[in-house]
Request: fold
Amino acid sequence: MTQFIKGQWVAGLGHDVTSKNPANNEVIWSSKTATPEQVNAAVDAARDAQFDWFMLGFDARLAIVEAYRTQLEEHKAEIAEVIAQETGKPQWETATEASAMIGKIGLSVAAYNKRTGHTENDIPAGRAVLRHKPHGVVAVFGPYNFPGHLPNGHIVPALLAGNTVIFKPSELTPKVAELMLKLWEKAGLPAGVINLVQGEIETGKALAAHPQLDGLFFTGSSRTGHILHQQYAGEPGKILALEMGGNNPLIVKGVENTKAAVHDIIQSAYISSGQRCTCARRLYVEKGAQGDALLEQLASAVKRIKVGAWNAQPQPFMGSMISEVAAKGMVEAQTNLLNLGGESLVELTHLEAGTGLVSPGLIDVTRVSELPDEEYFGPLLQVIRYSDFDEAIKLANSTRYGLSAGLLADSREDYDYFLARIRAGIVNWNKQITGASGAAPFGGVGASGNHRASAFYAADYCSYPVSSVEADVVSLPANLSPGLSL
Ligand SMILES: NC(=O)c1ccc[n+]([C@@H]2O[C@H](COP(=O)([O-])OP(=O)(O)OC[C@H]3O[C@@H](n4cnc5c(N)ncnc54)[C@H](O)[C@@H]3O)[C@@H](O)[C@H]2O)c1
Ligand SMILES: O=CCC[C@H](NC(=O)CCC(=O)O)C(=O)O
Reply:
């Protein structure tokens, strides 16, 4: 029983699907997909439950969301284990994902109060009141790289605001989704308030196209996000929040402590085996001896990064990629860049057939005249040597994306110059560009998002403002408008 519809676990009626541990290909979950009819039933259940969920009031909803937080705390080790097993990420990292899921509850409550909430102001003979109402029934689409934390970042604020949800997780991480739903069930969420439909693209398509949705909150690839954006064109009544990929630049300029710079570069490019939307994809390094020395140190450190299975001991820095297909895709991306004139500094290799295990790669693409503006979603960092800062910033901005960007430089003046000119939603200085804070908004511009930032600003897309001018009784104004007599 892998679909959760109207408070019941039911079997999927579609075709067989499995989820595999990408470090050894072992099947860890199997099921049948949800059919379009089951998607319809999930949307109907969410619609039936929505008004009562809203009318429960914020405090009662919060009590259930807090019970979910207790469940997350009690099952933290299990959550981290299942995420690691299903994604291949090492345990130290999935423990931080489980913690982020717990932390999301408090942050979402703070955001609800700060970004939405309720205010009243006295006006002549009455008051102006601002309230927020939920959109209604919303679909949440999740990616595989943070299968718990990122859908959770849509679901928790959506439920707090009074929406009901149909969750369609990535087909690569169904087991994590199932565990999340079991915890919501244990928390006592009323039937229909959250529903789970598992399946591949056709399940996603059936859900996204459902006429009864009031909104869709998506985290995933730019390709899928653009399809959804086109699909929602001409539907101004539906709220669409798109959190998509990036081709993120990191510039190094005038850094004294090269060891620290190498550390920030590695944490930016190779964490999660390069499978974070915020990962640095392009590294801009000044031409000359200082840049040469930095690259030499970087290449040497990249070669020493430990890669291994999620449960290997001692723990590796990089786990497996999500699948063998993804691993092969990265080898192919590297080959394409080499064919275009790139020069390998550290070769990315597929370490073991049948698995997603790859070693990290570093490639100098300075001589590639037309660098593809693609998000290579894995541990391959492209190096570009630059002559002056303006050139580096111009190259950094030459992307259709705009998610994250960073500068490693000891000069505040350089940072101010960079900050004013770079176009991205997350801009860091002397810090890794991954690991964004949930206490801040999170989203990109260009092909990275549709100006509906998530994390702390998720509250904004989970409700709409209702402005009212109110008085307790009907009364005549002190002066009637000219030309009126009653
Ligand atoms: N900006 C962010 O916050 C953020 C965070 C994490 C990941 N990402 C991005 O996500 C990508 C990796 O995730 P992914 O590969 O799982 O993304 P994906 O786009 O392949 O899939 C995301 C979800 O959309 C569904 N889907 C796919 N095609 C669909 C269609 N035509 N109609 C409806 N649903 C469809 C999938 O089944 C899945 O549930 C990377 O590009 C990464 O940068 C972005
Ligand atoms: O893969 C993309 C997300 C990466 C992650 N971002 C966040 O966790 C945003 C904060 C939040 O949603 O609470 C990162 O920056 O590493």
In short: The radius of gyration is 25 Å.
